[in-house]
Amino acid sequence: MRVILRDITKKFGTFVAVDNLNLNIHDGEFVALLGPSGCGKSTTLLMLAGIYKPDKGKIIFGNKNVTHELPKDRNVGMCFQNYALYPHMTVFENIAFPLKLRKMPRDIIEKKVNQIARKFHLDSLLNRRPSEISGGQQQRVALARALVKEPKILLLDEPLSNLDSGLRISMRAEIKKLQKDLGITTVFVTHDQTEALSMCDKIAVMNKGTLQDFDTPEKLYSQPKNQFIAEFIGNPPMNFLDVVCIREGDKVYLKGTSFKIELPERAKREFAQIQNGEKVILGIRPENLKLTSEGQNTVKGEIYVVEPLGRDKLVNVKIGTNRIKVIAPQDYNGNMGENVFVRLDMDKIHLFSSEDGNSLRMSA
Amino acid sequence: MPQVKRNKRGILHSAPIYIFLILVSLPIVIAYLWLFASSFSSKLTLGIFPKGLTLNNWRFLWSEIKLGLTAFESIWPVTLNSILLAGSITILEVIISLLAGFALSRMDFPGKDLIMKTTIILHAFPGVALLIALFYVLNFINLLDSIMGVVLVKVALELPMATWMIKGFFDEIPWELEWAAYIDGCNKFQLWYKVILPQIKPGISAVAIFAFLAGWSEFIYSYTFLFSSEHYTLAVFLKNLIGDFRFLDYGLLAAAGLFYLIPVIVFFLISQKSLMKINFGGIKG
Ligand SMILES: Nc1ncnc2c1ncn2[C@@H]1O[C@H](COP(=O)(O)OP(=O)(O)OP(=O)(O)O)[C@@H](O)[C@H]1O
Ligand SMILES: [Mg+2]
To answer: If you take atom 28 of ligand 1, which residue's CA is the nearest one?
Structure first.
């Protein structure tokens, strides 16, 4: 079922938790709500579930306005961060609870619960209490409980954040597969960008209650609309350098405290709106930087620290007052305090306004 | 087996502690023994050794007892009064503390902090200091010399503690549990009945047990506010048994005291498990 949020605002007292949010989620899409802690992700999800009433705006499921409908009439399944299993019920009773409330006949309930329990490998745990099973098992029970009533929409609030890292990675794949198999419209809340990038069709990036952008992971990664998205998506995060734009004839330079580099044709077209003398922020991802010897269009810096990552090394380089991270091959052997030269892949640079942080790319 | 050896040494090591504990608790044990023995005998030798087995001391169960000028046909009406008092206190206290605890834990309203603070102060307030004021109040609302009057006073004084206890149980229920229940299809009533109540059941039984025991052993207010003998409770009755020292019948007193004790012991044995689960104000022990 498609889900539309239109001009949704939610306040707690005078504090605006979600500010004028617009989202258009297609049927069967797997969407992530991504943002730092406290940005209003859970609040948004709870409004979708019907627990919170928006102060303003409309929520539409399919063609129906459900803004004023109670949670029990919305047919959504939800999985909470702390799983929220009923402590006084067994695993079986937990999963059966939504069906019992629908007054389904006993034998059908039993059949459905057993079926889904098998699917989630919970068969042998049906008689235990939630306190008697592991975190990963609890999480699967919570998922089973959310899905047993065959909801039209699945809401997941950081369902993986309480699992250990191995289990988290395997559950990522499981949930993605499950979502594709069921074709159920799913909204997935997370503050982990890797999770969002690897699992979801589209990502809504939020910050301080406002939507920053809603797009595919690739687009958010390659053409971030503002500095917040650029920094939040990608690991290790994007590097930023303060520069001034200088136009000399038909050439365009970016001038930093200790360097001056020329923009190639493509970048010049993309960022044609920048004025001569304008202060901008240059953004570039660690994988688009290379440590080389002195040459044209390189930036001189000093090695601050080297972090081996296993597959490669992350070299922290100090340039003027800025510090940047560069990915170097595993056999790189620079030492702390040495001078290095960094070459930028100028086709992969991003420029942001130093005033509002918005991207200065023309197409954006 | 090494374990047995350890046990032997353990006993040797802890022997002084046991002896100390036995010595300290000896007076209480002797007191209970005396109570039990003297209630079944006509005479005691050496303090606790009974002589002349008799059921005569328990005659209050089936025959008339004289207290000074008033005669009670038996102890049963008095017992009934005690049950009525303790029972009413229990029911009222559970209902009110449940509602108040819910409000204090789950709702936001102006003055909530103030209410919680005054609640604690109220609990610390010595009730005896209120005797005269309460006398006037009860007189004013025409509840003097009525069991319901004592019930109201007792409930009012016990309520802060009970409310805090219940609040602690509500505090431990995560909001997500309620939300999950709504999403699973509960209405408000089902949420309460199927999800919330089972979580706070230990709290309710704890409050009920404390309320009943407090009501059962209630003395000072019953003694002060109940004058007519048809309203006497067991505690007041016992006091009146002792009242006239010249004619004090120790055997009768012991038997009546034991009779007074039985419900408490039974109640405690039944409810032990629930009592163990209490953690005041949600602090895990
Ligand atoms: N019931 C409430 N009363 C008052 N403020 C609230 C309430 N619920 C949330 N908030 C505030 O609204 C903001 C958004 O909260 P929300 O729970 O949606 O954050 P979140 O994005 O889910 O964060 P997290 O990743 O930490 O879960 C927070 O600043 C929070 O303090
Ligand atoms: Mg949250």
So the answer is: A38
Please check whether residues A70 and A156 belong to one and the same domain.
yes
CATH of the domain at A344: 2.40.50.140
Decide if B182 and A51 are in contact by the 8 Å CB cutoff.
yes
Query: Which CATH number belongs to the domain containing residue A200 in this structure?
Result: 3.40.50.300
Q: Does residue A86 sit at the B interface (CB-CB below 8 Å)?
A: yes
Which of chain B's residues have a Cβ under 8 Å away from the Cβ of A74? 183
How far apart CA B251 and CA B34 sit, in angstroms, is: 10
Asked if residue A12 has its Cβ within 6 Å of ligand 1, the reply is yes
- Going by C-alpha positions, the residue among A165, B57, A108 that lies closest to residue B65 is B57
Q: Could you tell me if the ipTM is greater than 0.90?
A: no
Does A106 reside within a domain? yes
Longest distance between any two alpha carbons in chain B, whole Å: 75
Chain A residue at shortest CA distance from B196: A86
Claim to verify: residue A121 and residue A182 sit in the same structural domain:
yes
A187 and A312 both lie in a single domain = no
Q: Which of A12, A16, A34 to mutate to test the pocket of ligand 1 (most atoms within 8 A of CB)?
A: A12
Residue A208 is assigned to a structural domain of this protein: yes
Ligand 2 centroid to residue A13 C-alpha, Å: 18
A288 and A141 in a common domain: no
> Which of residues A210, A232, A254 is at a domain's end?
A232
pLDDT in tens, chain A (364 residues): 899 999 999 999 899 999 999 999 999 999 999 999 999 999 999 999 999 999 999 999 999 999 999 998 999 999 998 999 999 999 999 999 999 999 999 999 999 999 999 988 898 999 999 999 998 899 999 999 999 999 999 999 998 888 888 888 888 888 999 899 999 999 999 988 899 999 999 999 999 999 999 999 999 999 999 999 999 998 889 999 999 999 888 888 888 888 888 888 888 888 888 888 889 999 999 999 988 888 777 888 889 999 888 888 899 999 888 889 999 888 888 888 888 999 988 888 999 998 888 988 886 4
DSSP alpha helices (H): ranges in chain A? 41-49, 91-101, 106-119, 135-147, 165-182, 193-199, 217-222, 227-232, 265-270
* The ligand 1 atom nearest the CA atom of A41: 21
The fold of B66-283 is: MetI-like fold (1.10.3720)
Check whether residue A266 and residue A220 sit in a common domain.
Answer: no
What DSSP element (H or E) covers A298? strand A298-308
Where do the structural domains in chain B lie, given as residue ranges? 2-54, 66-283
Domain span including residue A202: 3-232
A positions 140-169 inside 8 Å of B (CB):
145, 149
User: Per the domain annotation, does A344 fall within a domain?
Assistant: yes
User: Do B78 and B72 form a contact (C-beta atoms < 8 A)?
Assistant: yes
List helix spans (H) across B40-111. 76-106
Which residues, other chains included, contact B150 with Cβ-Cβ below 8 Å and sequence gap of 6+?
Answer: B85, B218, B221, B222, B225, B226
**Number of domains chain A is built from:** 2
* Ligand 1 pocket mutation, candidates A43, A158, A208, criterion most atoms within 8 A of CB: A43
The 8-class DSSP code of residue A355 comes to T
Nearest neighbour of A102 by CB, restricted to B179, B185, B199: B185
Strands A298-308 and A251-255 turn out to be unpaired
Query: Is A225 a member of any domain?
Result: yes
